[in-house]
């Protein structure tokens, strides 16, 4: 293992930081619409009144606003369909640069909506930006994992989530009335994502393409070696890694299709793992809390928006904790700890919510449970669900696996954003028991089926699944969780 230990080089760090500027933009547009919702709804109403000489009906306004918020996730669902095409046709780095123009166009449309007095332009801007989200949240981990050395792969992939959480917090602050969430400045606030987008165009072109893509997909050995030398800085490390890539290339099929992906026997276990881990992450309550935290706190607290900022701060803090723990604790342990903690938090949410009308003093306990649930999510399920597919699949299947991840993640967010309000009306506090059941199922499945991928080469992980149909992975050496 000593030969695979790699140190940080300036090129590697710059490449990763330039890539995660994309997820910073996505986080920003996730966090910035919560606080100024009322002001943007007023803009919708004024636009309608100017056109039809009457106010917009309440139900139409509610529908339009929820459409404006959720259309980003729908766009992301559509965008994820293009991940394989871009990643294989243009390369990992170039694809990130190409799809970045969707972010620029989306931000410009959102900015133009106020001047053009058209809420349709705002909704279209959110949709275009959503396409960018679906593509970049898969292309980023793909690029990061393929340029990172084995011993730093998980930590660097977690930086994508750190950047996303950072964006959410910045967006929450920018959306406050005391900042840019005002009637005068909200359009400018929606366009601020242009800054990291343009910064990415200035830095990323000077970073190397993924050496794995150059060698395995394109057969350009000398270019792959040159890229690897820039990233690692040591010739001996380059030789070892190049040999490992050549071994993988020898086993790689060309002309790999989506149909082959779902038919190939050795992929069945990894596909089911990715399905359960991603849906477990998205449907265990975190997204409901993030989307509706302001409304949840508004009923009990005067300054609800500042508690929502607390949600953003806790979110970022525990993503950073996950970054430092990822290569020490490993993926399995963090996922298991996260899922079981989320299940416990959902039980506590049910209890507190049920008795809150009898004991109003428990409102502060509810805030504490919300913070704990967010911490548990970001400790493992949040960051790991986005990159685990890149570790479980070999080179030809990796882009399809990442597109599959993106569809599950954004699809889960979209469904939850749509279903949580009616479910809350139907089940009341017991809605959290549904989330608890999902978290417990994900915990059980992870315990029995997920191999530890920390510190192992891509080829070594793929070897576990080759012809290993039906073997319980926890029975294999090195897969025991808490040893």
Describe the structure.
There is one protein chain. The chain is an all-alpha fold and 483 residues long. The protein folds into two domains: 1-207, Growth Hormone, Chain: A; 255-483, Up-down Bundle (Growth Hormone, Chain: A). Helices cover 76% and strands 0% of the residues. The chain has 23 helices and no strands. The chain has helices at 10-19, 21-31, 37-52, 58-79, 83-90, 92-115, 119-147, 153-174, 186-191, 194-203, 211-217, 221-232, 235-251, 258-263, 268-282, 286-298, 304-329, 331-355, 363-379, 381-392, 398-427, 431-449, 458-465. Helix 2 packs antiparallel against helix 10 (194-203), helix 6 (92-115) packs antiparallel against helix 10 (194-203) and helix 16 packs antiparallel against helix 19. The longest helix has 30 residues, at 398-427. The chain is globular, with a radius of gyration of 23 Å. The two termini are 20 Å apart.
Helices and strands, in order, run as HHHHHHHHHHHHHHHHHHHHHHH
CATH class category label of the largest domain: Mainly Alpha
CATH architecture title of the largest domain: Up-down Bundle
SS content category: mainly alpha
Count helical runs.
Answer: 23
Q: What proportion of the residues form beta strands (DSSP E)?
A: under 5%
Mean pLDDT equals 89
Secondary structure tally: strands: 0
Helix content: over 70%
Biggest sheet architecture: none
Tell me the number of structural domains: 2
Q: Kindly report the CATH topology of the largest domain.
A: Growth Hormone, Chain: A
- Superfamily at the CATH H level of the largest domain? MFS general substrate transporter like domains
Radius of gyration: 23 Å
Distance, first to last CA: 20 Å
Shape type? globular
Low-confidence stretches: 468-483
């Amino acid at each position: 293992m000593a030969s695979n230990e790699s140190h940080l080089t300036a090129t590697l760090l710059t490449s990763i930081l330039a890539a995660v500027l994309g997820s910073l933009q996505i986080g920003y547009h996730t966090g910035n619409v919560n606080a100024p919702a009322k002001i943007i709804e007023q803009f919708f109403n004024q636009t309608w009144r100017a056109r039809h000489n009457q106010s917009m009906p309440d139900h139409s306004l509610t529908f339009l606003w929820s459409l404006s918020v959720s259309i980003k996730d729908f766009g992301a669902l559509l965008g994820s369909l293009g991940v394989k095409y871009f990643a294989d046709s243009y390369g990992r780095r170039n694809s990130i640069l190409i799809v970045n123009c969707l972010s620029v166009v989306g931000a410009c449309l959102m900015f133009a909506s106020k001047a053009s007095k058209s809420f349709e332009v705002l909704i279209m801007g959110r949709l275009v930006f959503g396409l960018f989200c679906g593509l970049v949240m898969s292309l980023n981990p793909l690029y990061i994992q393929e340029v990172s050395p084995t011993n730093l792969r998980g930590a660097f992939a977690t930086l994508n989530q750190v950047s996303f959480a950072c964006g959410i917090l910045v967006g929450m602050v920018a959306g406050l009335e005391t900042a840019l969430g005002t009637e005068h400045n909200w359009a400018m606030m929606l366009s601020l994502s242009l800054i990291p987008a343009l910064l990415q165009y200035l830095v990323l072109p000077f970073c190397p393409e993924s050496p794995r893509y150059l060698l395995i997909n394109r057969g350009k050995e000398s270019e792959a070696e040159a890229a690897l030398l820039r990233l690692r800085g040591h010739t001996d490390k380059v030789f070892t890694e190049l040999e490992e890539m050549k071994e993988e290339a020898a086993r790689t099929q060309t002309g790999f299709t989506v149909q082959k992906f779902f038919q190939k026997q050795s992929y069945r276990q990894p596909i089911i793992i990715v399905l359960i881990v991603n849906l477990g992450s998205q449907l265990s309550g975190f997204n409901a809390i993030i989307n509706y935290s302001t409304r949840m706190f508004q009923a009990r607290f005067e300054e609800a928006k500042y508690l929502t900022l607390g949600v953003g701060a806790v979110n970022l803090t525990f993503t950073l904790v996950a970054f430092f723990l990822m290569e020490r604790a490993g993926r399995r342990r963090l996922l298991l700890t996260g899922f079981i903690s989320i299940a416990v938090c959902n039980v506590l949410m049910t209890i507190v919510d049920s008795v809150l009308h009898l004991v109003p003093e428990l409102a502060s306990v509810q805030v504490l449970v919300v913070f704990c649930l967010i911490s548990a999510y970001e400790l493992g399920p949040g960051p790991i669900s986005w990159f685990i597919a890149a570790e479980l699949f070999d080179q030809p299947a990796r882009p399809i696996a990442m597109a599959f991840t993106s569809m599950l993640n954004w699809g889960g967010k979209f469904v939850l954003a749509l279903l949580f309000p009616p479910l809350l009306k139907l089940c009341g506090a017991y809605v959290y028991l549904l989330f608890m059941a999902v978290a417990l199922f994900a915990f059980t499945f992870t315990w029995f089926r997920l191999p530890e991928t920390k510190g192992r080469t891509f080829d070594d992980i793929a070897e576990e699944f080759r012809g290993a149909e039906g073997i319980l992975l926890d029975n294999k050496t090195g897969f025991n969780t808490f040893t």
